[in-house]
UniProtKB/TrEMBL annotation:
GO terms for molecular function: ATP binding. This is ABC transporter ATP-binding protein. The lineage of its organism: Bacteria, Bacillati, Actinomycetota, Actinomycetes, Actinomycetales. It comes from Schaalia naturae. Residues 263-290 are annotated as: Disordered. Signal peptide: none annotated.
Length: 290
């Protein structure tokens, strides 16, 4: 790992107040994240895995200054990360991108594909020919530039997620976060999107933080794996070690729950109908349902 992590978090905790209950009407606290430490080095691929409700998405929101931690610190390239207005967080938005889980809910139905993808360029005041930049990134994710004039309802789920990916990378972030970006897609499209992520990592050296509850999707993709359970990181290490020889009982339970079924045919070179083929990656991850 680099001496200076790209992203570094220490002791991150997030509490949510609960409504009063009991005869004394005392207020309780839900601790969603419990003293978590996270490092992501430049160009590194880190997977954050765990079951639904383990605190993964809450942690990601804190890391990207979309929510405030109750305790702990977050730094990006050595600079403190804190929630704030658009002006105070613009530097962080220029360096990061995020792809969310739902390709149907993450796009504004009133905006064309072109406007959606160009939105970060406008908001972050990126100089240059925005139209050309949008066309280039659409081709990069396997979509025809002619899609720029369409609306989300005219696209398939896989096409929408490619649009979401294009929007996340159009401004050239150094860290891309995928918060369950594949779970709403079918098996074949998931393999295609993974190939796109691999290509982005290989070509640009973009660091990736991939959040997932599907071990089969990250076991041959990540450099390191962090396992979250009940808001805490219970195990961390190389993907080979953690998933090949898990030490914590919860990690062993996760690994043992993954059935050894063959994945789909390699998806490289397969695009949505009418779109250019997706660039091939050098390796292919077996995709498994859990």
């Amino acid at each position: 790992m680099s001496a200076v992590p790209l992203l570094s978090a220490r002791g991150v905790t997030r509490d949510y107040p609960l409504p009063p209950s009991g005869p004394m009407r005392r207020r309780g606290v839900l601790r969603a994240v419990r003293g978590v430490d996270v490092d992501v080095a430049p160009g590194e691929v880190v997977a954050l895995i765990g079951e639904s409700g383990s605190g993964k998405s809450t942690l990601v929101r804190i890391l990207l200054a979309l929510d405030a931690a109750t305790a702990g610190t977050v730094a990006f390239e050595g600079r403190a990360v804190r929630p704030g207005g658009a002006r105070s967080t613009r530097w962080l938005r220029r360096r990061t991108g995020i792809v969310l889980q739902d390709p149907y809910g993450s796009l504004d139905p009133r905006m064309t594909v072109g406007r959606t993808v160009a939105e970060p360029l406008r908001a972050l005041r990126i100089p240059g020919d925005h139209r050309a930049m949008v066309e280039e990134v659409l081709e990069r994710v396997g979509l025809s530039p002619s899609r720029a004039h369409q609306y989300p309802h005219e696209l398939s789920g896989g096409q929408r997620q490619r649009v979401a990916l294009a929007r996340a990378i159009v401004h050239g972030p150094t860290l891309l976060v995928g918060d369950e970006p594949l779970s709403a897609l079918d098996v074949t499209v998931r393999a295609q999107i993974l190939d796109l992520l691999r290509g982005l990592h290989a070509e640009r050296g973009t660091a990736l933080l991939l959040v997932s509850h599907d071990i089969g999707l990250v076991q041959n993709f990540a450099d390191r794996v962090l396992v979250m359970h009940d808001g805490a990181v219970v195990e961390e290490g190389s993907a080979v070690r953690v998933l090949g020889a898990p030490r914590h009982p919860y990690t062993r339970e996760l690994v043992s729950a993954v059935p050894a079924v063959p994945g789909p045919p390699a998806a490289a070179g397969v695009g949505d109908e009418g779109d250019p083929p997706v660039p091939a990656s050098t390796t292919h991850l077996p995709v498994r349902r859990h």
